[in-house]
UniProtKB/TrEMBL annotation:
Protein name according to UniProt: Pyridoxamine 5'-phosphate oxidase family protein
Record-linked InterPro entries: Pyridox_Oxase-rel, Split_barrel_FMN-bd
Disordered: annotated span: 211-232
Amino acid sequence: MEAYTPTDQTRIHRRPERGHYDRALVHSIIDEALVCHVGFVADGKPRVIPTTIVRIDEAVYLHGSPQNRLLTTLAEGAPACIEITHVDAIVAGRSGFGCSVDYRSVVIYGKGEVVAGDEKARVLDAVIESFLPGHRVRPYKPSEIGATLILRFPLDEVSAKVRDIGVKEVDGDYDLDLWAGVIPLSIVPGKVRDCPRLKPGVTTPDYAREYGGPARSVTRPASAETKLTDCH
């Protein structure tokens, strides 16, 4: 199935033309994320917590300490709202109402399922591969696996919302003597800093020096790659 089925929770009502349920688009937005934000209710109070996220097939996974308030609450069955946003550009309009951002976002609703057994190590491997492809680590110790709580959230209720139109004004404002345009944004890795306690002979791997290149490239909507520097 190429698209997710909208539900009462995931159907986009505000700016419905920006709503998307395409499976490949949803996957690409999730896979590009280093961090998500998770909304939930604990002790009758709303909370939003940032954490890492990884997708494996048709589910996303959160992990952390068994003492983590977010995870323990969700492991007990509390519903979660998981959100990811990538800001692709600053949009400068000729009016305040014309100023905006181009973005890609995903919202996931669901309840977590506790991951156990050998699958825990597989998920942790996927977490590392998702944010640092090719990185090698030593085998996990049983105590480390035991000290990690992992929750699975099936991608049953999910939608994406995208703004990728750049400058959009009311007709009369296009004739004003004011600049308008788009400033594309991207995450740019800095120079790698080796651990000062590297064993002699251990060199910086290519995947670290070239981080952010083809190894971790994610396809964006075409319009997000070809922004004009003035209005269109």
